[in-house]
What we know:
9 helices; about 325 residues; nine-stranded mixed β-sheet; alpha+beta; Glutamine Phosphoribosylpyrophosphate, subunit 1, domain 1; single chain
Amino acid sequence: MWAMIATWRMALEGITAGGEMLEQGAAAGEALEKAICDIEDFPYYKSVGYGGLPNEEMEVELDAAYMDGDTFDIGAVAAIKDFANPIKVAKRLSAESVNCMLVSEGAEKFAHKEGFERKNMLTDRAKIHYRKRVKETAQELRPYIGHDTVGVVALDQHGKMVVGTSTSGLFMKKKGRVGDSPISGSGFYADSTVGGASATGLGEDLMKGCISYEIVRLMKEGHHPQAACEIAVSNLDAELKKRRGKAGDLSVVAMNNKGEYGVATNIEGFSFAVCREGETPAVYLVKNVDGKCIHELASEEWLNNYMQTRMAPLSE
Length: 316
């Protein structure tokens, strides 16, 4: 059995390509890297990689992470600039026994030394988004609502599981800000004997519950991935509201080592993409109904509107 699940509609083409590799017997890590690179390279997804939205100084700072569920090896980069595929750098770092998480200039020096592709990740389209936001918030620059990290969990035919993340983080974030995406246990976690999970949303709140590790822990206790996701999101949402009066966006995907999956969210509009052996890759929309998250297959109309909206011409 092979399978792959990812946050958001933007992952569909990537996991489709990755799924084809898994079908041919590729290792989970190779398929996951392909899936995330395809998303990082697509300029119209403004929350990941090339075309990602910049920080308040109009710099694109990227975060990414990779975890091997067999060995627990982890690699991560944070606030890295001017490299095309941060997931590749993170995956390479997972082979290091120490110095496996690097940030900013240190991450860039490592990537350069290892020969990874340099690239100006700030697109003209992203500059337009930036300038429009500056005009809208002339008094104070504030991050937008929406934090669309791509998180992917992959299972290959040999039973190995890996997880990876990639994001440009909050639009208009402070220089050097890092969210949950490259933080083990928060943005991602994988254990091939159990399963894997990844999160997307407001990193500052996701980190408060180490939510990806919590989901894997719940699966290890015997919960189906769907139940594990719902419990983790519901508990963290409730705890944050009790202690702080509010909770940010919390959305998660998970898969166990049988290829069974689950998702949960506390927002409207969350989507995910999944491909599994014997099934056609598909996008689903998630609705939270009284604490239960219902998945509905996205319509062709919704899918078409999604791409038209993201690729529509921009003007200042």
